[in-house]
Amino acid sequence: MARIMTLKNAVADLVRDGDAVAMEGFTHLIPYAAGHEVIRQGRTGLTIIRMTPDILYDQLIGMGCVDKMVFSWGGNPGVGSLHRLRDAVERQWPKPITLEEHSHAAMANAYEAGAAGLPCAVFRGYRGADLAKVNANIKSITCPFTGEELAAVPAIRPDVAIIHANRADRQGNVLIEGIVGVQKEAVLAAKRSIVTVEEIVDDLAPPSPNSCVLPSWTVSAVVEVPGGAHPSYVQGAYPRDNVFYKRWDAIARDRDSFAAWMQKNVMEQGPEAFAVHVGQSTSGKSA
């Protein structure tokens, strides 16, 4: 059953050095506040997993938290490269990392397999693609019923999944509305999970058609962090901060400017700093 906790205590209790950690959110509901707490607590040796790693994973890599990344696309959406990721891959700063690249379809199916307790995902994919030449975890199998050649990848079963959601009730049931991505599957596939939410309420209220509810028994910890997805967005609470995504390109290009920004905006801050973004238009001031 979910425990309602502070973010500091949830990360201290549930995220450990060397863990495989999935911080999911597809443009919407990216768990920035939780990721920053992982950085503040100095977690190292992590394997980070995500379908679309962007600024948050750039920050984790640049702060030396990461040994490996499993992903299907990486970049600053609408802007360009992740410069801390490139520095780690090309120049091993602050340390080298290993990459395991997949397609979106492979990642989505691998999460589904993990959530179902299966050892692998089987799907139609990678036909005519070269990723299998550089990723030993992409295999092909023959369907025993039709003889069709299919792709297979290992199930994703993280040690811990971290997501942000719209709200939770006081029993720890979580409501996700809007673009839901693979958050549900990530939580169900993981051994442990942390869900930060915009608010904790008495009643989740009727959900919208594009929503899902994670029952309390599927979640390890629920944490109230208003604004905790900024600079990504939360439907009905605040918009995506496109100005900041553009600003990040200049901040992250240089090691010194990156380190200075992280010191001021992450290491010297806490999750309460995110609350200023609720109900505001985009500012480009922080993440």
Key terms:
287 residues, alpha/beta, 10-stranded mixed sheet, 3-stranded antiparallel sheet, 8 helices, globular
Describe the structure.
With 287 residues, the chain is of the alpha/beta class. 27% of the residues lie in helices and 23% in strands. The protein has eight helices and 13 strands. The strands form two sheets. Strands 1, 2, 3, 4, 5, 9, 10, 11, 12 and 13 form a ten-stranded mixed sheet that branches. The protein has a three-stranded antiparallel sheet with strand order 6-8-7. A hairpin with a 4-residue loop joins strand 9 and strand 10. The protein is globular and about 55 Å long. The model has no long low-confidence stretch (mean pLDDT 95).
Mean of pLDDT: 95
What oligomerization state is this entry in?
Answer: single chain
* N-to-C CA distance: 31 Å
Query: Helical percent range?
Result: 25-40%
Number of strands: 13
Our Rg estimate from Cα atoms comes to 18 Å
Residue ranges: pLDDT <50 for 5 or more in a row? none
Name the beta content range: 15-25%
Q: Major beta sheet, specifics?
A: 10 strands, mixed
How would you classify the helix and strand content by structural class? alpha/beta
Task: Quickly count the helices.
Answer: 8
* H/E topology pattern: EHEHEHEHEHEEEEEHEEEHH
Shape: globular
Which helices and strands, and how do they pair?
Elements: E1 3-4, H1 7-14, E2 20-23, H2 32-40, E3 46-50, H3 55-62, E4 66-71, H4 83-91, E5 98-101, H5 104-115, E6 120-123, E7 139-142, E8 149-154, E9 160-169, E10 174-177, H6 183-189, E11 192-201, E12 211-214, E13 221-224, H7 242-253, H8 255-267
Parallel strand pairs: 1-13, 2-3, 2-9, 3-4, 4-5, 9-11, 11-13
Antiparallel strand pairs: 6-8, 7-8, 9-10, 10-12
Helix pairs in contact: 2-3, 3-4, 5-6, 7-8
